[in-house]
Structure formats: structure tokens, C-alpha cells
Amino acid sequence: MNIKKIIIYIIIFLFIFNGVIIYSLQDRNQLKLNVVEINDITQTLVNQWEELDNNNLPKFQYGSDYVVVDNNGKLIKATRRGLNEDINSAISNKDTIVDIKSDNKVLGKLIIYNNTSELWQSYRNSLIIFTISIITLTAILSISYVIYIDKFIFRPFRMLQNFARHVAEGNLDIPLEMDKGNLFGAFTESFDLMRVELGKAREYERIANQSKKELVASLSHDIKTPVSSIKAVSEVLYTKSNNENEKNQLEIINAKADQINNLITNMFNATLEEMHELNVNATECSSEILLGLIKNADYNNQITMTKIPECIILADVLRLSQVIDNVVNNSYKYAGTSIDVVMQIKEDYLEVTFKDFGLGVSDDELPLLFNKYYRAKNSSGKSGAGLGLYISKYLMNKMSGDINCQKSDNGFIVILKIFIP
Predict the structure, then answer these.
(1) How far apart are the C-alpha atoms of 198 and 193, rounded to whole Å?
(2) What's the rounded Cα separation, in Å, for the pair 91 and 111?
(3) How far apart are CA 115 and CA 42, in angstroms?
């Protein structure tokens, strides 16, 4: 609805309302009787005075109501009931009192009824009915307009608000539904088109990220092959060489190959974990497998190990090997000391404690060590991506276990909690 039309309708309504009020409140005095009418009535009454009881009172075009009384104030006749039938009542009501004379002799009194109060009562009732009608009509129009505003303005905006909340929450599959007669049709349609385009953009981004992760995983896997070849060749040359200098160089090559291999493994595992493809198949096995896993990780022969408690553990041997390799490699890289390994059963877990005698990390860094890509301050100048402990935590949790780090007075401690079923 055009706003100009609404204003015009309101102005017309106000004019009509004010006009009716002014008309209703104008002076409503009784209709004035002229002298001719009074004389006519009086003369007729004089002529019929003797037989007035038997005759009807004379009627005139003015339609005035009146009462006829004798000189003693006794009622002779009235045009209708309910009029003032005595002089005192007539005076109180401000009725017109006229003497009925014949040959200068007063026969009685003519009391012409003053109907002002009845007229006011009638007009007041009419005004009340009119006012109630106006208020009712105004209320109906107001309610209708409020319903109109709510349906065609507020309701679309509420729907738009809910739509915006769904979009903010990432629910792009819920369309923005609008009525065909909506005033904001083009406006809301643009928002729904935005939803569709956002959905397409999200899908394109997902495909691009998936392709990127698949590429990283593929390249990581492909690089491991030549690194393994380099490591194998260096080991063969090391066994055949009798020159100490050459052996030292070959050991360096072998160590660097191990570092490259560890970095590639971490990157490969992190990519697979984001793709939800880092599978962990935990099965029941003997705790004695830990002896071989720890010895394989101890390529510098720096580990001193206590006796392994005999029990059944829940583990994926390949993934547990990755975790132990990472813990031992970190100790070699950052501490460079011997490592004490202590195993004991506590409640439902076999706890394997790795303790080195390096500087470790500060207390405020301990809670951050398992965050993705986080590297402690002591890692400066050393290779790494900050993924080893993050992946180790993920793998241990998948095997119903856990991994924790502690700081001791003379070193650093890593505890593996392996679940005992």
C-alpha cells in the first residue's frame, strides 16, 4: 500500500470525524414556538373549553406537546403522558405557561412542554453510539494494519533473521522461503542466491582442500622411497668401508636420512589424519612386543630398560612403534643423553616411562606440547614440524591409551599409558 494513500485516508477520516462531532455538539435548544402557534392553540382551547373533556386536543404542524389545567392547577387534558401536569413542575422544567382567556376572563393555563433535556439525552445517546462505533472501527483498522505490517514486513524480516542464523551456523541447505506477494521479493531472493553461491564456494573449497591433502599424502609417500634407498646404500657402504672418516660421513648421511624420513612420516600421517584415513587397528597382544619396539628405536644404544611386566595389552603394533620412535627421537634430538625406561602396571594401564636427563621445557610450555605445529623454545635450530607429539597423542587415544609429559628436577619424562583389556 502506498504511504501517500494511507496519509490521504487518515486526513479524510479525521475531517469526517471532526464534522460529526461538531454537528453533534451544536446548540440543541428546544424548537422555539412562535406567537402565532401559541395564539392558535389558545384560541382553539377557548372555543372548545366547555366540551374539552370530550374532544381531542387540537394538533398543529409544529407537533408541540402541552398540558391544559384549570385555574386551580387541576389537570384537564394533556397531549401525552409523562408531561409536567402541575405549575410547579412546569416552572422547574422551564416550560412555557400561557393564560387561557376568554373576554379577559382566565379559564385556565396552557403549559407548553420544554423538551430540551430529552433532546440532549437523545443526542448524547447518539454521540455515545457514534463514539463507540468510531473506536471500534479504529480498533479494527488498527488491528488490520498491524496484521498487515506483521505479515508483509515483520514476518519476512524474522524469516530473514532465522535464515541469517542458519547461514552463520553453516546450514546452507535450508532455503529462504517467501510468499509470492512479499514486498521484499527481489531483496530476499538475492539472499537466497547468496546462500546457493556460498554452498557452491564451500564445495569448491572442500574439493580443493581434499585435492591438496591427497597431493601432499601422495608426494610424502613417493619421497619415502628414494630416502629409503639413500639410507640402504649408506648402510651398505658403511659395512664395506674401512676408513673411519668415511664411516663418520656415512653415519651423518644415515642420520639425516632418518630425520628426513621422520619429517615425511609426520607430514604424511598428519595429512591422513585430516583426511580421516589414519587408521588404527588395535588388537590384543603380549607386552613382550615392547622389547623389540624399543630396541628398534634405540639406534644410539642409549636406553636402559627395566623388566617388562607380563600382561596382555591393546595396541596397533605399527602405530605404537611410530609413537615410541617419536619419543626416542625427540629425546636424542633435544636432550642427547641416556634414557631410562621403566615399566609398571597401574590400574588398567601398563605405564611405560621414558626419562632423559636434558633441560626439558618450561612449566608453561608443558600443556602446549601436544598442540598441532607447536614447537618448544628449546627446538630453535633443530629440524621438525611440531607434529610428532600431536600425532602420537592421536594414535594413543585411538588405542584407548594416552601419553603425557612431565618435568623432573634432573630431566624430562614422557609416559605412555597402554590399555590393558
Answers:
(1) 9
(2) 9
(3) 20
Cell numbers linked to 409: 628436577
Report H helices in 82-184. Answer: 87-92, 116-149, 155-168
Q: What is the dihedral of CA 358, 361, 363, 368, to 10 degrees?
A: -140
Q: Which DSSP category does 109 fall into?
A: E
* Cβ count near 359 (within 10 Å): 13
> How far is the C-alpha of 336 from the C-alpha of 332, rounded, in Å?
4
Q: What is the DSSP letter of 371?
A: S
Q: Cα(334)–Cα(384) distance, rounded to whole angstroms?
A: 11
How is residue 122 written as a grid cell?
Answer: 437523545
Q: What is the pLDDT of residues 291-343, one digit of tens each?
A: 988 988 887 788 999 999 999 999 999 889 888 988 888 888 888 899 999 99
Whether 182 and 188 have beta carbons less than 8 Å apart is answered as yes
pLDDT of 214: 63
Characterize 143-168 residue by residue with b for buried, 16 or more Cβ atoms within 10 angstroms of its Cβ, and e for exposed: eeeeeeeeeeeeebeebbeebeebbe
pTM to 2 decimal places: 0.44
Would you state the cell numbers that stand for residue 284, as one nine-digit string? 590384543
